[in-house]
Structures are given as structure tokens and as C-alpha cells.
Design brief:
The protein has 19 helices and no strands. It is mainly α and 348 residues long.
């Protein structure tokens, strides 16, 4: 396997973010299918030295050895100098990001091969939540965003629009991880950036999704009235038409907020509408990349979730019970919906 492809591996990138050299060597070998002997010519070290590092008997402390491993493993450029969130200020977007975006759409040509690569890697990050915590990948994704925004001043037209979407996807991911880490202010700042960049680039689906996430934040923070307003706005983002999947996500969030303000009939109606929209695009390739998970099973789970929010306990329990077997490969989601099922069954 080519070294660049190896570095798409999420566990390897997480090890690099920690600068855990023992784990870097182990995860690289796992991803590349190499033995310690097979790694010898790549890093320029004999097998006993590699074994000593991986077992923790030898520490990698010298700059020369770090550089040799980095060069030998062909670490991608966007992973050099990875920042780590330390303290509240480190979670927030920096001013220079806005400076780069402000120069978008100027005349120029950008080499989009780097953007293609980073887009593929971000898709892997999205799917890694059951394997690697988002905080472990924070620095990696933040560095990827730097690489993407660094290309924007040299792009124009459709190329610049495409980079704006990729930047917005990264900002959304950073917002979500910040929110899960209870960094509320930075989470809102990142999602607002994602929304603005999506609008600037003409990407209605991502603009809607950012609004939908903001509505979720308001709802989970105990403000259903604001959540309902924002979810309604997520459905109507201007003259561009939303894809069925993006509209389904917005409508479902509107249903959840409506349930919380006591509009249960409206919530039930919206939940069914959201499910029908989602079922129009059962194939993953027909949905935006960040909605890869919205398959028919998840669409029906959302109907059950809305029933739970409306306190229709029997309908909720039946819906969860039917869909749960399809989530065995997603332990975190399975545990969440199992708890919902247990509670709904107890109340019904």
C-alpha cells in the first residue's frame, strides 16, 4: 500500500496527533500490513530498535530520530506542526482564517490535489467516532483546515467554491467536537463560520446543515423556542433547492424542536415528512458526504426519536426495537437508542 494511502488511516493520524512514537510505528505497520522487519528500510532502524520503541523500552526524544521517522514514513505535509487545544482560547477560530477566506475568488489557479486528499481524509474522520474520539483528532482536522484555506487565495470560480465547501465541512466538524467537549462558545463560533463559508460558496445543503446544527445546540441547551426558529430557517436557505437528505435533516430538527414547545401534532407530521424525504435517497452516494449515516434505518430511528420527544412511548419503543438490530456495528449509537428504548418501554 502506498504511504499516502496508509496515512488516511484514522488511528494512525490520531497517534501522530498525540506524538506517540510507539503508537505511530505500530499503527503504521498495521495500516500498511508490515512486520517490524519490513519497517527497517523505511525508517532506517534495525528491528530490535523498532521493537524497543514500540514496547516503550526506548523513547524517541532526539530531533534527528523524529525527523528520520517522519521522512521515512512520508508523513503528509498537512500533519506537520499539528496544534493541540489547550485552554479555552485554543478551541476558537483564529483571525487569520477569516483573512484567507476574505481573499477567495481572486484570480488564480490552485492545485486541488491537496484538497482532494484532505476531503478523502475528512470523510474517514467522520466515520471514526466509535473508534477514535474527536478530541484525539482535533489538531489534525484544524491543521487540515489551514491547508484548505491556504489554497483559497489562489483559487477562483468553481475551484474557490469547492474549497469553501471543504472549509465549511471542517469548521462544522471542529464545532461538533468543541460542543461535545463542552466548549460552547467556540462551538458556536465554528458553526457560524461554517454557515458563512457555505453561503459564500453557494452550497445550500451545507448552509442548511450548519443551521440545523445550531438548532440542535439551542435545543440541547434548553432553548426550544430559539431551536425551532433556527430549524425553520435551515429549511429555507434562499433560492437554491435543498437535496432531499439535507431537507430531511432540517425537517427532523424542526420536528424535535416543535415537540419541545408542545406542538406535538406538528412534530409528528414533520417527523413523517422527514422520513419520507430521507427514504428518497437510500444510496449513500446520493447524499451529501456529512449525511452518509442517514440511511433508511436512521431515518426510521429519527421517527421513533420524535415519538419519544412527543411522549408517545409505545410508538417510540416499537420504532427503536425494530431498528436497533441494524446498529450492532455502532456501539455508541446502539447504547444511546437502547437507553431510549428501555425508558420508552418502561413508560408505555
Amino acid at each position: 500500500m502506498a504511504s499516502r494511502e496508509v496515512w488516511a488511516d484514522v488511528r494512525l493520524r490520531a497517534a501522530w496527533a498525540r506524538q506517540d512514537w510507539a503508537a505511530i510505528l505500530r499503527e503504521y505497520r498495521r495500516a500498511a500490513g508490515l512486520s517490524q522487519r519490513g519497517l527497517e528500510p523505511i525508517v532506517g532502524m534495525p528491528q530490535p530498535h523498532i521493537s524497543a520503541i514500540e514496547s516503550g523500552r526506548r523513547q524517541v526524544t532526539s530531533a534527528e530520530l523524529m525527523a528520520r521517522i517522519t521522512e521515512g514514513l512520508h508523513v503528509p505535509e498537512e500533519l506537520t506542526g499539528v496544534p493541540r487545544p489547550q485552554g479555552p482560547d485554543a478551541w476558537a477560530p483564529q483571525a487569520e482564517l477569516r483573512e484567507r477566506i476574505a481573499h477567495a475568488h481572486s484570480a488564480g489557479r490552485a492545485d486541488l490535489r491537496t484538497a482532494d486528499w484532505i476531503a478523502r481524509v475528512l470523510a474517514q474522520h467522520r466515520r471514526a467516532e466509535d473508534e477514535v474520539l474527536g478530541t484525539a483528532l482535533w489538531g489534525i482536522v484544524r491543521q487540515q483546515l489551514d491547508a484548505v484555506t491556504g489554497l483559497i487565495p489562489h483559487a477562483a470560480g468553481a475551484a474557490a467554491d469547492r474549497l469553501m465547501l471543504l472549509a465549511a465541512e471542517h469548521a462544522h466538524w471542529l464545532s461538533w467536537v468543541a460542543w461535545q467537549s463542552e466548549q460552547r462558545g467556540p462551538a458556536l463560533a465554528w458553526i457560524d463560520l461554517a454557515h458563512g463559508w457555505a453561503v459564500d460558496g453557494g452550497h445550500a445543503d451545507m448552509a442548511s446543515w450548519a443551521q440545523r446544527i445550531r438548532a440542535y445546540y439551542s435545543l440541547s441547551h434548553g432553548d426550544p423556542v430559539r431551536a425551532l426558529r433556527t430549524a425553520e430557517a435551515a429549511r429555507y436557505v434562499g433560492p437554491r433547492t435543498l437535496s432531499p437528505a439535507a431537507e430531511a435533516a432540517a425537517v427532523h430538527q424542526e420536528a424535535m424542536a416543535a415537540a419541545q414547545v408542545g406542538e406535538r401534532d406538528r412534530a409528528s407530521r414533520l417527523a413523517e415528512e422527514a422520513c419520507k424525504l430521507a427514504l428518497r435517497v437510500p444510496a449513500e452516494e446520493e447524499r451529501p458526504g456529512w449525511l452518509y449515516w442517514l440511511d433508511p434505518t436512521r431515518a426510521r430511528l429519527q421517527v421513533a426519536d420524535a415519538a419519544y420527544a412527543c411522549q408517545r412511548w409505545r410508538d417510540a419503543a416499537d420504532g427503536f426495537r425494530t431498528a436497533l438490530p441494524s446498529l450492532v456495528a455502532f456501539p455508541r449509537d446502539h447504547a444511546y437508542y437502547q437507553a431510549r428504548l428501555d425508558d420508552a418501554a418502561r413508560r408505555s
